[in-house]
Amino acid sequence: MKLRNISRISAYAFGLALVAAPVSAAEFGMWDADRDAGLNNSEFRTGFEKAGVFNEWDADSNAALTESEFETGLGDNATAFNTRFGEDAFNEWDVNNDTRLTDSEFYDGVYASYDENNNNIIEEPEFGDVGDDMGDGGLWDV
Ligand SMILES: [Ca+2]
Ligand SMILES: [Ca+2]
Ligand SMILES: [Ca+2]
Ligand SMILES: [Ca+2]
């Protein structure tokens, strides 16, 4: 009886270990193409584009996101998104104020938001949030 309980507990612990294993879709080292321990805008964009968020959200495939496409894309993640990027991210990222986000406006906006110390490089600690948001069930899990 006692033995059986122990084996059940270790099976449970083993299951937890599997669940707790990192499921991040994003690896800093793989994104940092020139290995200078920071991600510049183009390294970030190359890595981030693989998630396919912009194209997925761009429902009519006209290479621009309207606010409605943006909100539909966010769906249930709107609250988490607003916590991370602020409630007015769409308008802040729309640099030319034409009420549409091009892919560059979108990627630049996301990039600048993760670059918390505003030095135009995403360092590994800043990248932690990117990894979280790109993992299963994260903001960018499309
Ligand atoms: Ca780099
Ligand atoms: Ca569109
Ligand atoms: Ca725009
Ligand atoms: Ca930075």
TrEMBL record:
InterPro entries: EF-hand-dom_pair (IPR011992), EF_Hand_1_Ca_BS (IPR018247). Residues 1-25 form the signal peptide. Keywords: Signal. The keyword Hydrolase does not apply. This is EF hand. The lineage of its organism: Bacteria, Pseudomonadati, Pseudomonadota, Alphaproteobacteria, Hyphomicrobiales.
